[in-house]
Amino acid sequence: MTKKPASHLFGQTAESLAAQHLKKKGYHILGRNVQFQGGELDLIARDGKTLVFVEVKARRSDSHGGMLSTITESKKQRLIKLAARYLSQHQLSYQESRFDVVLCRQHPDDSFEIIHIEHAFEVPGEDSRW
């Protein structure tokens, strides 16, 4: 059995904390680490009637810029394409959906700060079906 790198375990911890946070807010988690060719969706959840694609970002410090700075335009485009594949595969083309980001920052005392940003970014253009 191969040992997972510490960064992978840190990311898994952050995703678990993000999922717990969303559950406490009343979200229903539908999927974690949903794999597609070209990437993965960290979390897929339902918030009422809305399907939510959640990107989880974890950091131990802000030494390389804020966590939101890691959600680049190319990352947004990749997430939009992955979400479109998910919607297509599940025949949910007209499902109301949005993109959220959950930021998890670990403090020196090993506690975590969780920041949930709803509607973190929009799909550009007029086609809401993407």
Structure overview:
The chain is α+β, with helices and mostly antiparallel strands and 130 residues long. It has a single domain (6-121), classed as Trna Endonuclease, Chain: A, domain 1. The protein is built from 2 helices and 5 strands; from the N terminus they run αβββαββ. The chain has helices spanning 6-24, 73-89; strands spanning 28-36, 39-47, 50-59, 97-106, 112-121. It has a 5-stranded mixed sheet with strand order 1-2-3-4-5, with helices on both faces. The longest helix is centred in the first third of the chain and has 19 residues, at 6-24. It starts with 5 loop residues before the first helix and ends in a 9-residue tail after the last strand. The mean pLDDT is 85.
Task: Compose a concise summary of this entry.
This protein is of the alpha+beta class.
Q: Which structural traits does this protein have?
A:
about 130 residues; alpha+beta; Trna Endonuclease, Chain: A, domain 1; 5-stranded mixed sheet; 5 strands; about 35% strand; globular
